[in-house]
Design brief:
mainly alpha, 2 strands, 70% helix
Length: 131
C-alpha cells in the first residue's frame, strides 16, 4: 500500500510496530486502507475504529473468563486440610469461560480481517488490479 500511495507505513515499519506495539496494528491497518479510498474521493469503507472488532471482543472474552474464575473461587469448598478445592461444577465453569474467551476473541478477529481485507480487495479491483 505504501508503494502505491507513497503514504503510510512501509512493510518494515509495520512489522516493527507489530512486535513493539501490536495492539496498534488492528487500528493502523484499516485506517491506511480507508485512506486509500478517501484519497480517490470515495467514502472510506473501513477506518481506524474497525480495530475495535479485535479489541472489544477480546476484552469481553477475558472478562467472561475472569467472571468464571471468580465464580469458581466462590463456589469452591474448604477441604479438611484448610485449603480450598474447586468443585467439578466450578471447574466446568472455568472451562466454559475459557472457551467463551477464545471463541469471542477469534470471532472479533475474523470479523476485522474480513472487513479490512474485503475493503482492500475492493480498492485494488477499483484501480484495475487483476485477481
Amino acid at each position: 500500500m505504501q508503494q502505491h500511495s507513497h503514504r503510510g507505513l512501509g512493510g518494515g515499519i509495520a512489522l516493527l510496530l507489530t512486535f513493539v506495539a501490536g495492539i496498534a496494528m488492528p487500528f493502523v491497518t484499516p485506517a491506511e486502507v480507508g485512506s486509500l479510498s478517501t484519497r480517490r474521493g470515495e467514502k472510506a469503507p473501513v477506518t481506524g475504529w474497525t480495530g475495535l472488532w479485535v479489541v472489544l471482543p477480546a476484552l469481553a472474552g477475558y472478562g467472561g473468563l475472569i467472571v468464571a474464575a471468580i465464580s469458581a473461587a466462590v463456589a469452591s469448598s474448604p477441604s479438611t486440610e484448610g485449603t480450598r478445592q474447586i468443585s467439578s461444577g466450578a471447574g466446568a465453569g472455568i472451562a466454559v469461560g475459557a472457551l467463551f474467551a477464545v471463541v469471542v476473541a477469534v470471532a472479533g478477529a475474523v470479523t476485522w480481517f474480513v472487513k479490512t481485507n474485503g475493503a482492500l480487495n475492493r480498492y485494488w479491483r477499483s484501480v484495475g488490479a487483476q485477481g
